[in-house]
């Protein structure tokens, strides 16, 4: 059975490459799954005793546990709208989670081991970001109404507003609290806001920094920042570049470096992936990237890569440790770093959802091991995007979404992989240990309407950047107007159809570069965009018509 499965998935060559891994890990790792009726867009939250909480797009918060090697649902609670917020659990065992019905919910486990609603706090718009809890029990979360909220459960079991601050855009990423009592919140206005947390839990605004030096039409920031041992902040910007910031002596944010190109790869999109800080201030992140010097349209297509970088103390620039290709045109989420210092990553590509383990070997080279694969939910000829990152269970399990995004799968982890303590060429590494605590970063989950636009936008930008490259010698005025229209597109309303029509009017283009092969590639890419739009129309996710065949 295993031989037949592997042959179907990978062919003869794939079987030879993956057989040792499959026999040693795929067969042994997977233990059980919980099948849901809706997509799981939240990452699981797990207590030290092994209680598991996750939410789905039907508006259900599910309470589960692993008992005798099996995943078991203990209880569920249904809210009034889809849930894409990942739960956060306080030291007192209170579970906080946001819903698209505009409420932040607080639950506890009652004496009958069921979910019991304590209270809920209302905002003006949807709550899709994940809450973060401070050491004194104050809960911080953002909403689409542009506000960052600070609430606390009173002795009377009521969620009470402590403080709120209005930013310039909707909040989809999760707040981050560092070890110096500062809170960081990214906004869809492409700015990072920083606050000091007062003893009462109130927010004192310190500074903000606009993360769009390229001055492009900003996509907003959907990623959560991370901070290294020296307090330097790493965050993807609205212009899809990686920024490194620090506080100067005047307590103001200043730029250390901004990287759009790392090694031979140009970053095109972080999608909704957040960076992860390693044990020695090395940074891991997944991004869509392509070669700086593509020789053909195929090479120009954006692929998902995992980057390992470190800030060079002398030059102040990011130094590449290594880069590894994850998959072709995959949907990506944030990796998770487990206590054994292994990185685990979920991604969807080629009709499959894959779970992979990635690690640095003693030669400072990234290695990837595909541990499990299951069927992906397709939208046209593209897999439905993933938003749920894997989560580590204290009994050495790993939980990750699988099977068309509608199942939560449990895996038994094997012997931890050794990660290099001092990889070659990274003399800035120290011996500091990394500890995962209850204040770990929670990944953000944007609403469906935004990520649909993001996937289409990536396709359009591939096309427009290719045309810009080919037409740079002598572009015509209509061609320039078309390219500007496409490259500035950030949503999927009727403007999408206008952009597609613009490209069709330009085809066939004149020029020695416009070969039959290029023509075929361009038309294929446009057909793919139309296919995605048509599939979404059928699902009533968009209300527009693109009749371009």
Fold and architecture overview:
The chain contains six helices and 37 strands. With 549 residues, it is of the alpha+beta class. Among the domains are: 29-35 and 264-434; 455-538. A hairpin with a 5-residue loop joins strand 8 and strand 9 (115-122). The chain starts with a helix and ends in an 11-residue tail after the last helix.
Topology (elements, then pairings):
Layout (H helix, E strand, L loop, with lengths): L1 H28 E6 L9 E2 L5 E4 L4 E8 L2 E9 L9 E2 L5 E4 L4 E7 L5 E8 L9 E2 L5 E4 L4 E7 L5 E8 L9 E2 L4 E5 L4 E7 L5 E8 L15 E2 L5 E4 L5 E6 L5 E7 L1 E2 L2 E5 L6 E2 L4 E10 L5 H4 L2 E9 L6 E11 L2 E2 L3 E2 L5 E7 L2 E9 L5 E10 L2 E2 L2 E2 L7 E3 L3 E6 L4 E6 L35 H24 L5 H11 L6 H13 L9 H23 L11
Antiparallel strand pairs: 1-37, 2-3, 3-4, 4-5, 6-7, 7-8, 8-9, 10-11, 11-12, 12-13, 14-15, 15-16, 16-17, 18-19, 19-20, 20-21, 22-23, 23-25, 24-25, 25-26, 26-27, 28-30, 29-30, 30-31, 31-32, 33-34, 35-36, 36-37
Query: Which ranges are low-confidence, i.e. pLDDT below 50, for 5 or more consecutive residues?
Result: 1-28, 293-300, 415-460, 470-481, 483-515, 535-549
What's the total number of strands? 37
**Outline type:** globular
User: Beta-strand percentage?
Assistant: 35-45%
